[in-house]
Amino acid sequence: MKICKTIAAMITILLFTGCPQVSAQLRLDVETGVVFSGYNDVQIPNNSGTKISLSDELETDPAFFWRVRLIYSLAERHDIAFLVAPLRLEGKGIINRRVDFNEEQFPQGVLLKSKYRFDSYRITYRYGVYRSKKLQMALGLSAKIRDASISLKGDNKEAEKKNTGFVPLVNFRVEWMFAKRFTLILDGDALAGPQGRAEDILLGAAYDLHENLQVKLGYRMLEGGADVDEVCNFALLNYMVLGGTLRF
């Protein structure tokens, strides 16, 4: 939990020592669109469960999604952001072998229904390391709370594995104003370690409709997972993004 204490300390320092001559700015960033499942491999428990694919062996339908981020600029180069990003995916299909999932056995040939939930809550501190008229780059840290669950249902049986945990991430953002009112954006959180990895990256283009309103269109990739005793799950999700940012 050292990263949480680090972020909290940075926020406290900035709140009380931030430049008083610079007015704070509040921005509301909203995304919606459709998310498609790439690969989604699951084995629960890791050492005795059956490894199955929720995307290849079951048919996972595309789903609508939404994400909301509130960004507070304390000074010209200092941002604090709060993100809420829920996700729900459902699938179904028949697997022609017995499936052992979270200490429940599903016989071969039965219709299985899956539910994949991956809710993300993050607080981010980001510092602008480079700023020019056409290019801006920023780096920071994100403290992420992951609230997730995977369930299977079939043959009058149901099993669910829930997991809530903390994930530290490195945050980055690049904005290139390549034409009047147009901006190319690369934005994300990512980190890898011995037990797993996580990447949540957006590549998009934005257009300034008004000095206080920007709309964007892009592609977001969410990839990663964990390989531990309780669970092995790695997934790739593809987002088609439509969104906007309102400045207050």
Question: What does it look like?
Answer:
The protein has 248 residues and is mostly beta strands. It has one domain (2-247): Beta Barrel (Lipocalin), CATH 2.40.128. 6% of the residues lie in helices and 71% in strands. It contains one helix and 15 strands. It has one helix at 2-17; strands spanning 25-43, 52-53, 59-60, 63-73, 78-85, 88-94, 99-101, 104-106, 111-131, 135-154, 157-179, 182-193, 196-210, 213-227, 232-247. The strands form two sheets. It has a ten-stranded antiparallel β-barrel with strand order 1-4-5-9-10-11-12-13-14-15. A two-stranded antiparallel ribbon has the order 7-8. β11 and β12 form a beta hairpin. The longest helix is centred in the N-terminal third of the chain and has 16 residues, at 2-17. The radius of gyration is 21 Å and the shape is elongated. It starts with a helix and ends with a strand. The relative contact order is 0.19. Residues 13-22 have low confidence and may be disordered.
Provide keyphrases for this structure:
mainly beta, 10-stranded antiparallel barrel, elongated, 248 residues, Lipocalin, single chain, two-stranded antiparallel ribbon, 1 helix
